[in-house]
Amino acid sequence: MNNQTKSTRTTSSFQKISTKRKLESIFLFVTGKCNAKCTMCFYSGDMDTKKQDLTFDEMKKISETAGEFNRLWLSGGEPTLRTDLSEILEMFYKNNKIKDINFPTNGLMPDRVVEWVSRFRKNCPDCTITVSVSLDGFGETHDTQRGVPGNFYKALETLKKVDKHFGKDPRVMTNIGTVITRYNYDQIYDFMTWVYGRFNTSTHTIEAARGMTREEGVKILTEASLKKLQDEVSPIYSGYAERMKANTEGLRGKITKIFYLGLMRTLYNVRAENIDKSTPWGMDCTAGETTLVIDYDGRFRSCELREPIGNVKDYGCNITDIMRSDAMKKEMETIGHGYKANCWCTHGCWIMSSIVFNPHKMISSVYKGYRQSQKLYKPLDFINENHLKHLEEKYKLDKEKLDIK
């Protein structure tokens, strides 16, 4: 739990922009099983149906027919509960030449995460994998929000073990994913400060609860409250940008810092503008054009927040046929790049995925976002051992379970 630096980072496909729109990201719900009961889960209703997961052979057909694409975003359920996940990841690496994998986890199975990431790095050497650990707040706050007593310390164990085994591996990134709700809003700043000071994480993303949540009343954000919060935590993102710069050689390090800060600020600006009402992003949404969502039971969508438009099984699990299907064409026509459907949302993955395919908008937005971040910059030298211990006492954390040395 320290700020050791990684060796020089390799280039990720997340740092590139493109004018050619084609299938670039598949969001694959690998299982409908979950070992948590998150209050803000937008997918609980689907999981409660307890339909059968896609088989490995069906996953194989999906991979064999998808062609080359850049990014595989895992989802669920809890991905670590899919026992053949390692084989699935290696299959997509071999068949689809993927460059990035996002591996979210609630952190309840730390040894399995380490085992599978180790295997992936050995067998898929040219792919970057981001282990995104869900952490919503200090101690009981996190456990309450995730519905599992002891989840907080298990998630910390996962973080520590990932850092121990891959802390200097430039192909393994770590992210903390925090969903803002009524349970944790008041401690987000303290929590992000503590995480930044205690862990060697690559970055920390905050999400607005979205969709139909398991528990009513957990969504409390407004445009004003989210903007206030994102201004408060902006200096922490500057700290993460400096880490990235330090781990990237020469001029590319400076560009990475500008790009990261500008992109994150753009994401949060768009999200804030859509909390209270749908507000056009000022760019096309490329859902269904560059993205495909495949549910654990085979239903497919253009976006996680839109209704299914078919099932891959009805197309022989052929992704090329699905992307060219009348169903997908009709869906894209209905969406109209967001303008016809007026379905502008707060979903970070789709905002990020869309902006890289709107290069003119990206350049201006990233520059504007970077300037905003610079104006909000404050030194983080107050994040020292005394301050971190103060936060641990304030939020009554168990020193033995933290195992801070």
Structure description:
The protein is an alpha/beta fold. The protein has two domains: 23-220 and 290-357, TIM Barrel; 222-283 and 359-379, no CATH class. Helix content is 44%, strand content 12%. The protein has 15 helices and nine strands. A nine-stranded mixed β-sheet has the order 6-5-4-3-2-1-7-8-9, sandwiched between helices. The radius of gyration is 20 Å and the shape is globular.
Name the features.
single chain, 405 residues, alpha/beta, TIM Barrel, nine-stranded mixed β-sheet, 15 helices, 9 strands, globular, disordered N terminus
Please specify the SSE layout and strand pairing.
Layout: E1 25-29, H1 44-48, H2 56-66, E2 71-75, H3 85-96, E3 100-105, H4 110-123, E4 128-134, H5 140-146, H6 151-166, E5 172-180, H7 188-198, E6 203-208, H8 223-246, H9 250-273, E7 291-294, E8 299-301, E9 310-311, H10 319-323, H11 326-335, H12 348-355, H13 359-375, H14 385-394, H15 399-402
Parallel strand pairs: 1-2, 1-7, 2-3, 3-4, 4-5, 5-6
Antiparallel strand pairs: 7-8, 8-9
Helix pairs in contact: 2-3, 3-4, 4-6, 7-8, 7-14, 8-9, 9-13
